[in-house]
Amino acid sequence: LKEVVSEKTAGLMLTNPNTLGLFEEDITEMAEIVHDVGGLLYYDGANANAIMGKSRPGDMGFDVIHLNLHKTFGTPHGGGGPGSGPVGVKEELVKFLPKPLVEKEEDRYYFNHDMPNSIGKVRSYYGNFGVVVKAYAYLLALGAKGVERVSEDAVLNANYLKEKLKEYYELPYDRVCKHEFVLSGKRQKEGKVATLDIAKRLLDFEVHPPTIYFPLIVEEALMVEPTETETVETLNQFIDTMIQIAKEAEENPEVVQEAPHNTVVSRLDEATAARKPKLRWKSEE
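The structure assignment produced for this chain is given below.
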């Protein structure tokens, strides 16, 4: 990092824990390196459910943070959203925020437009209001101790899965993880079963496949993020399913290579689906 930053460095965007699910233990030193050249450190809150109530990005040295309400705070994640990402900054950056800001005077809330250093008004500055309200209700329902418990359960669940599966799949980074970890299907790929095949086979067990082929630094990556909401029963079901697929990949690879077998449609042409998506249903009549 020291070798690539300079006075031209405006900022660095990181998430902590990182995409491997590992906590960046050198984060304060990284923050100092960026700050020493006049840059800012920006926190991607995608993995915030691993640290809630445990660690604060501001204490790590971050200057700006966005929170993914649709990932961390109980609002819908699947089906395309809607997402919401409120942004918070340290005190010295408040004057640059988009205006108006909501402020409070005694018992009255009001819009403050008197911000001469603001970058100005941005489009849709109310954000996805319904998503924000859901997140607020979620936080009120949990309370401070409940929010901390969310992170504890998310981390516990991820480490439980990791320990149970590392015998059957490659684990490139074998250390205590946070809310997620990354397996590799490299061993299965040597037997002609790709990570995509494993993901498709999971569908036969009515299991939503994890993110695959990401992060790019892990060959045949399987990113597993159980979150805090799974019970030990569903975690064990996932473990048993993944072990069965690993054994099938060795003993009967065709079953995995030709999956899924039990879905309404089999494998789609994913390249065509991405380039020529059909976004609404049309009657064939």
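Interim note for the steering committee: The chain has a mean pLDDT of 93. The chain is about 35% helix and 15% strand.
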